[in-house]
Structure formats: C-alpha cells, structure tokens
Amino acid sequence: MNIMDLIGSFIIGGIVLVMLVGFNGTIMEDAGAQTIKVMAQTNLTEVTNILDYEFRKMGYRVDSAPDSSILYADSLKIIFAGDLDNNGSVDTVRYRFDPLTSGYSNPNTHLLYKSINSQPPQLINAGITRMRFWYYDASGAPLVSNPVASPSKIKSVKIAVNVESREPYKETTMPYLKLNPGVYWERTFKPQNMR
Questions:
Q1: 101 in helix, strand or coil?
Q2: DSSP per residue over 104-155, as a string?
Q3: pLDDT per position in the chain (195 positions), as tens?
Q4: pTM of the predicted model, to two decimals?
C-alpha cells in the first residue's frame, strides 16, 4: 500500500464521516421541529376544547334568546350569554384576543383573555399567534361592521386560530422548515339556541 492509497482512503473516509454527521444533524432538526409542532397541536387542542364547549352553550337558557344572547361582537372580542354549567343561572362570557401583548418567550404569540360573569379575566397563554371572529346572519351573509351593529342578527360565529409553540424554535438553514412550526384551526359555530 503506497502513500497515495492511504491519503485517498483518509479523504474518502472523511467525506463519508462528514456526510453521516450532516445526515444526523438533519434528522435531529426534523425531530426537534416535529416535537415543537406536537406541542403546538396540544396547546391548540386545549384551546379548541374550551371554545367548542362554551360556544355551543351560547344562548342556552337565555329567556329572550336569540335577541339577547350575543351582547357584543367584533373581530377580536365577543361577549355572549348562556348557561354554561347547566345550573339554571345564565352566565355572561367574555373572550378578548390581544394581538399587541406578547405571550411567552416566543414573541409571535399573544394572549387570549376569558372571563365569566364578574370574575377577573383568566389568561389563556397557549401560543396563539392569530385569532379572529367572523359573524353571519340567518341567511349565511357576513355581518361586516366592526363591531357588529346589531348583535341580535348573529346566527353563527366562525373562529380561526393559529398556534405556535410558546418557546421559539431555533433558526434553520433548511427552506422547508418554518422558524416556528405551527398549526391552524377554523370552525363555524351554529348554536342550536341562536336559530
């Protein structure tokens, strides 16, 4: 074996080693991004379970429903009435999304405030980056004024929510990975008591 064979072997072995290290780095970045996405999905599930339960109770046991079920409605805030805990007492529920106040360590996330009756607002910090409400009348036509001029006309509410991890994900050189992998949820609620 001469010196050229030995140098060639070292060069080829070095190239293979660099490729394996790069491949391992790619796998680790993908695994990290997947973990961040699962955390965001878990946070979104928590928020949507709360919204799903409470928005379906909108107008429930409100004596003069549907005219007094929604008290205020705009693109970032809604106030509605309904018997949430099925105890015969009508509750007033307030949701307000604050797109200006940053949430956790991730500066893209913002805060959602929720209060029931006269309780102080509860902070929902689930990594929400965007949240918006849309309102529709009985024919399905959008009510475009903000705030809605006549909340009694609202028969359905659409909610859209984007969620990222509360902790920022590191930058990556791979173009197919976003800086903070996130998830999106959208649903239109047509509460039975609002028809």
A1: strand
A2: SS-TT-EEEEEEETTSPPEEEEEEEEEEEEEEE-TTS-B--SSS-S-GGG--
A3: 688 888 888 899 889 888 888 888 888 877 877 887 888 888 899 999 999 999 999 999 888 655 568 999 999 999 999 999 989 899 999 999 999 888 677 888 899 999 999 999 999 888 899 999 999 999 999 999 999 999 989 999 999 999 988 877 765 455 544 456 788 999 999 988 886
A4: 0.80
